[in-house]
Structure formats: C-alpha cells, structure tokens
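Field reference: sequence -> structure
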Amino acid sequence: MSGLPSTFVTAADWSVAVRSGSAVAAADPGILVLRSAGSQAYVVSVLNPANGVPRWVSVPIPVTTIAPQAGFTSDDGHPWVVVESTTDATTMLWVFDAYATGRDVQPVQGHKFEGANGKPPVVTVTDRGSW
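Structure field:
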C-alpha cells in the first residue's frame, strides 16, 4: 500500500472502526483517525501503527455544520495534524503536533477564516503547512 508509514505492520492483529463522518490518514508518526465523540464533538488521535494504541488523543473539537476533515502536513520535515471545521460562514483550522503524547492534547495553533455572503471560505493547506 502506498502512503503508509514505513513502521506500519500489515500483519498486526488490530483494526479501527471507521464510520460515516470519520477520517483516516497515515504518515510517519502513525495512523491519524478523526471520529465522532458524541453528538457535540469530534476527536482526533494518532495511533501506533504496530499495535493500534493511541499515541495521543485531542481535546474535543466542536461539531460544525460540515463534518470536520483532518490530515497530515509537514514543515521542514516536522509532521503536523491539521483539522478543518467549517460552519456556514467560518472555517477553523486546528493544528496539532503530530509527535504529541497523552490525552486531551491541545492544538498548538488555531486559525479562524471568515467567508463572505454567508458562505465559508475555501482554505487549502499546502504540503509545507501554509494556507
């Protein structure tokens, strides 16, 4: 499989349940999973690819009108996790250190982008973490 980190063990005996509204991505820090944490929030986590144990789990990210999206980006070789949450006219980007550890991990940055005429802005995150 292309796009999986070199540490991913395909013979490992674990799996992740992915439902509608969830996201999964892979990069060197591990397997990124964004999933619902009830009706009011989402959480993002990075799992150890060898055993599926979470390396870290974020604080809850509020539910928005459009399901959040998450992915990896990097800046000078350092991986970051970016979560985008959008309402009718606002987009928030939450940036987490992909090498974080523990539970209730806080974003290291948050950026708010305002749209126009009641429409959300289009925000694109480049491979080097720019927007």
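Note: DSSP finds no helices and ten strands in the chain.
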